[in-house]
Amino acid sequence: MAMKIRLARGGSKKRPFYSIVATDSRMPRDGRFLEKLGTYNPLLPKDSETRVKMDLERVQAWLDHGAQPTDRVRRMLEAAGVVTKTTRDNPNKGQPGKKAQERAEARAAKAAEGADAEG
């Protein structure tokens, strides 16, 4: 059974509140889970102590049993010091899309033609 530690959404519309749960990866996001490990309230300020609450001993027990945290939960665990920080390398993240690159090249070519005409 592939185990995950992930967020299950609660709260009302436009007021998100998440539970950190251990579940089978085949279950739906807000569906059946095996154990509730903590909570996450994204509406609180980032420096608030109550923004993320976790039972770190139970989280570690699930990790020892082979549960895999999702990306967002992994970041929370890295901040808590439970999991070692991994390097994230996405070299294409900051680059504009194809159309924007084409427009930038066209603008640069037009500017170069304008500079040649003046000089």
What does this structure look like?
The protein has 119 residues and is of the alpha+beta class. It is 34% helix and 26% strand. It has three helices and five strands. It has helices at 56-64, 71-80, 98-118, and strands spanning 3-12, 15-24, 35-40, 52-54, 68-69. The protein has a five-stranded mixed β-sheet. A hairpin with a 2-residue loop joins β1 and β2 (15-24). It starts with a strand and ends with a helix. The mean pLDDT is 90.
Summarize the structure.
This protein is of the alpha+beta class and 119 residues long.
Spell out the blueprint of helices and strands.
Elements: E1 3-12, E2 15-24, E3 35-40, E4 52-54, H1 56-64, E5 68-69, H2 71-80, H3 98-118
Parallel strand pairs: 1-5
Antiparallel strand pairs: 1-2, 2-3, 3-4
How many DSSP H or I helices?
3
User: Regions with pLDDT < 50 over 5+ consecutive residues?
Assistant: none
Helix share, percent: 25-40%
Tell me the Rg in angstroms. 23 Å
The count of strands amounts to 5
In whole angstroms, the N-to-C terminal distance is 71 Å
Broad structural category: alpha+beta
Main beta-sheet strand count, sense and barrel state: 5 strands, mixed
**Lateral arrangement of strands in the main beta sheet:** 4-3-2-1-5
The pLDDT mean sits at 90
β content, as a range?
25-35%
Keywords:
119 residues; elongated; alpha+beta; 26% strand; five-stranded mixed beta sheet
